[in-house]
Amino acid sequence: MLVTGHTGFKGSWLTLWLGAMGAEVTGLSRDVPTEPSLFELARVHEGIRDWRGDVADRQAVADAVRAADPHILLHLAAQPIVRRSFEDPIDTYATNVMGTAHVLDAARHAADLEAVLIVTSDKCYENREWHWGYREEEPLGGHDPYSSSKGAAELVTAAFRRSFFAEPGGPAIASARAGNVVGGGDWGADRLIPDCMRAAAAGHEVRVRNPDAIRPWQHVLNPLSGYLVLVEGLHRDRTLAAPWNFGPADEDARPVRWIADRICERWPGPLSWGHDPGPHPHEAHSLKLDSSRARARLDWAPRWGLAEALDAIVDWHGALARGEDMREVTLAQIEAFLAVEAGAAT
Known about the structure:
Order of helices and strands: EHEHEHEHHEHEEHEEEHEEHEHHH
Mean pLDDT: 94
Shape: globular
Largest sheet: 7 strands, parallel
Radius of gyration: 19 Å
Low-confidence stretches: none
Number of helices: 12
Strand content: 5-15%
């Protein structure tokens, strides 16, 4: 199994989970994107093949796929930050669009490959600022370079699926759209939960850019569980080779200020937030996903609601502050997640 972006926040949770399941994993990443990082704190490299290369480099991707010779390929590598896409749009497109094309092109020549999952983002949709969830057939687009790069990655995936992977017997290609994932071990720049945790550690006030913006918040393990269900299904049913949303229950699409309030309430020490008036680059005000397709065809539903997600984050960072073994803490949270019946928290 090959996982691109395995050193990132989402990729680290996924790689650790796959290792706990007994999977043989090769990870492909350019570097460890943050300091500190979940990848290093949870020793995600243990028991996997840790391969370094940039998905924007076509030859590096081809070499990694050839060396790994995977049956399953999960593509998570990305430039994931909206604000950074304004600062360096070329790198954002090179990574998110051409990186996806490089992965799919390498997949064309992989002898034993059976399934490919391209992970994009809920921001791939042309945002209409409406108050119901986007469905997989909604128009793709994006106001900012990051969002449009994810829409373009979806178009690249669809074109490769139709052009090169339509014949029976070849790899089944699907894409997954989820966003605003939260969880312990995220130190990404310009993200609400990491900003809260950094402020808590430093004893500072959290500065919030857009307190009234509504996002589909969910614990990172929720969409990851959907990815795994989807990949398993692709082996037996090629009609699943399509785009999929993996979002939270409607009631967990909350304003930023709601999340900030509850993190501050849960944190055991003093923590408060205030509005940062900016100026800031454009960001969508309202964004929700409709995951009816995944519920109906994959029997998937989020296991943890937003309350459980926020509790898990505070517990994780509390354990870090106490000097606990963060690999064991992270694996224990995966086990606790799996112990909950799917959909019980919705």
